[in-house]
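To close the chapter, one final illustration. This time we ask the reader to focus less on the individual chains and more on the assembly as a whole: which components sit near each other, and how the overall shape emerges from the parts.
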Amino acid sequence: MLRLSNLSYRAQRIVIIVSFSFIPIALLVTFGYLPVLGMFKYSFTDWNGLSPSYHWVGFDNFKTIFTDEKYYEGFINSIYYFVGSFVQLAIALYFATILSFAVRGKSFFKGVLFFPSMINSVAVGLIFLFFFRPEGTLDSILGFFGITNPPHWLLNPKIINISLVGASLWRYLGFNFILLLGAISSVPSDLYEAAEIDGANRWHQFRYIILPSIRRIVSVTLILSISGSVAPFEIPYIMTGGSNGSNTFVIQTVKTTFSFNKYGMGSAMAVVLFLIVVLVTVIQKTFIKEEKKNDRH
Amino acid sequence: MIAIKSTSAATFKYLTLILGVFFALAPLVVVLFASFKTSQEYHNTNSLTPPADWFNFDNYRTAFVKGNMLKGFKNTAIIMLVSLVGNMLIGTMIAYVLQRFTFKARGAIMAAFLFAALIPGVTTQVIVFKIVHALGLFNTMGSAITLYMGTDIIGIYIFIQFMDNISTQLDESAMLDGASYFTIFSRIIFPLLAPAIVTMVIIKGIGIYNDFYIPFLYMPDPDLRTISTSLFAFKGPFGSHWETICAAVMLIIVPTVIAFLALQKYIYNGFTQGAVK
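The assembled structure is written out below.
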């Protein structure tokens, strides 16, 4: 019988390298790289996903994406999410800063602020459908403050995106917060002490000690929020399905492909999204390299 | 003067913290309230009013039985268990090969995993869908399990980093005893990776428990619903019965609360480690 331990280590080496990498690489190629190739190929066709034949249509799909409002509407709505991510970062940074100093009930506050990012996305969607209902939670809270004629949060196309961004902010704030808190706590505490001796107040400490040392993670978060704001899917899809002017680019991609069977078009949309995300990531990587270079000087 | 200034700063600090807690919890607390209300009570009371009877579990029963939540929990548990075991084995195996051996394709493999992390998952589903179909996995648990099982660069990095600190002298002394590379992996490396495995199980596990996209796209069969898709199905038939929907939402959140309270430290570490890489 062939036993591994009977082989020389040289032969074993080959066996182990090949057998241990086979499955991971097979999965990576099948679900990581093949889809990308397919996506590029079908983006130039009118394939409906079912029939064995299709036609090459050149750049027609891409032209449609940027000229038909149904398709580019999602990009316009992503402005709301982009602005929302700045608000989110500011709030997360504020709480991370004050909770990195001595605060009574610190772990309680930390836990409560973080917990929403652990919740199932469908649950978050339903929680906020309930929250924004007419005469629901938000309206009751506002009524408590004497505001009796609130708008329809999820029906009014002018407000709906703000409501949805609010729900997303609630969900992702905690994650942002915990990352920043981790970054801030790695600042050596003797820096604060030295600054205090020099008469620096909390704002000075934030401005001149905390902010410079977390600059990298803040800039990464900001750059990533560009690609993040193009791709919202779960919360708007679960809450509104993209209706009343709340469509996002990913919702439209999913609908185009899986509801209307326009695989060629869907692939083209996926390619556009892919290129945006890759571009943003490349910018981010070069940005970080620059920063590292500057740090060394 | 300074004392006054610092007390007002402290007041402001705690005020904002309490406001933060209020906004984080209010949407959840009202759902909890509604989940204990009778249908009539729900329609007649304000959503900020606590329920009359905190032990009215009728809505939970309805959600469990009519909403098929039990099946959802069962399916999610099976998918989580199988894909986590597979994911950990695959992840540690490839990390072992990449960290302990130097061979020609090593750099290329690392680069392939690294570059794959740039591919936004939502976009490629259009074609992944076709591949899942072609493999005959559509509408089987195999689809979700296979897709969750594929390891990513974050997992590989965490394992490799941890393995950097496992001395190669251990391997060498085992080799003197005639142990095969497989024995070294399974008896020495894998057990010593336990802390890193715990971190990865938590990050991945939370991700799978909360995922909606994959079960929604690949397992539309009602018998294969996970907790996410079961809950999503509540939107239709229970559309006007918010008290039942709220109970279903709470059913899904309770395990999350328990996991969070029990594993807090690991969760914070896991999330920060996973993201900074």
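The first helix of chain A runs from residue 9 to 42. The mean pLDDT of chain A is 88. With these observations in hand, you are ready for the problems at the end of the chapter.
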